[in-house]
Amino acid sequence: MIKINKIWRQFATIFCFSTFAFGSFFLSFLVFPLQRIFVSKNKRKRTAQLTVHYSFRMFIKLMSSLGVLKVDTLGVKDFNDIKGKVIIANHPSLIDVVVLIASIKNADCIVKNELFKNRLLKGVFDATGYISNSDPELLIAACKSSLDSGNNIIIFPEGTRSEKGRDITFKRGAANIAIRCRAHFLPLEISVSPSTLSKEDKWFSTPERKFDFVLKTNEEIDLSSYFDEPNLPLAIRQVTADVESYFKRKLQYNE
Amino acid sequence: MKSKEEVFTALKTILVDDFEIDADEITLEANLYEELDLDSIDAVDLVVKLRDITGQKIEPEIFKQVRTVQNVVDEVYALVSAN
């Protein structure tokens, strides 16, 4: 029985990711071009972001209904009321951002510049106006206007997926953005068990049982005492070290 | 600042005081990004600080090519000695 279940989940996983690829293609080559014709310019980015939000919701529903995973968003009911926050999370799996965008309606993302060259995803990033990390000054300016307009920004401060069995280390980009844009952190904890879709796993490998994806929200971290710090590089190093050890504590506690 | 040594000393002071970098690690050969752990936003801040102490307008574009402490010293020295 266990074996049949695993074969089923293997099949379902491949089916889901094929749907994801097809969906990105469909959005890039049909939905977004149509939105460019029928949606006025000032609403276009927002419309594209909502399209991705609802598409990802459907994708997560598809994965859960096929028995690939079970998503549990503990205490994350009022995500629609969150405005102007820098949302930071640990990054155990490939689908973290999918669950986050599916859960948070008004979210901008920071995307590694290399990913803008990915043929499948390029159309999605162009339409949604997700922010590239290529130029630091443009990045901060884009984040500022996004946060000021009430959007939230999702960042994985590790910069890439966590490595199994290693302590997480944060890059300073998240603290830089929050402090320079005078915004606060909303820390989210993600746990995926059994571990799958991590940096070391192949996307089609299937864990021994249906995996649990748990998203837990925490109290906001107020950064206002750092906003007017005369020496920003030092303040940013301090904040980065603080949130890094905050996450280490939280994640240890969960184990 | 008349000599490259003076530029290096001034740069070292900035890196230690403002970027919490260990003075022992700051050699002319040290790579800013790999060994001294600066990131691209730090580089922008460093340009601003160097502009403040030299009084010279430094083009961030020039700085994008810079990799080592030696490169920074050379760029800053070229600017101050040209004026």
Describe what you observe in this structure:
The complex is a heterodimer of chains A (255) and B (83). Chain A has 255 residues and is α/β, with parallel strands linked by helices. Chain A is 49% helix and 15% strand. In chain A, α1 packs across α4. In chain B, α1 packs across α2. The longest helix of chain B is centred in the N-terminal third of the chain and has 16 residues. Chain B is globular and about 30 Å long. The mean pLDDT of chain B is 89.
What is this entry, summarized?
The complex is a heterodimer of chains A (255) and B (83). By secondary structure, chain A is an alpha/beta fold.
Topology:
The complex is a heterodimer of chains A (about 260) and B (about 80).
Chain A: H1 2-38, H2 41-65, E1 69-74, E2 85-89, H3 96-103, E3 107-111, H4 119-128, E4 131-132, H5 136-148, E5 152-155, H6 173-180, E6 184-193, E7 211-217, H7 232-254
Parallel strand pairs in A: 1-7, 2-5, 2-6, 3-4, 3-5
Antiparallel strand pairs in A: 6-7
Helix pairs in contact in A: 1-2, 1-4, 2-3, 6-7
Chain B: H1 4-19, H2 40-54, H3 60-63, H4 69-82
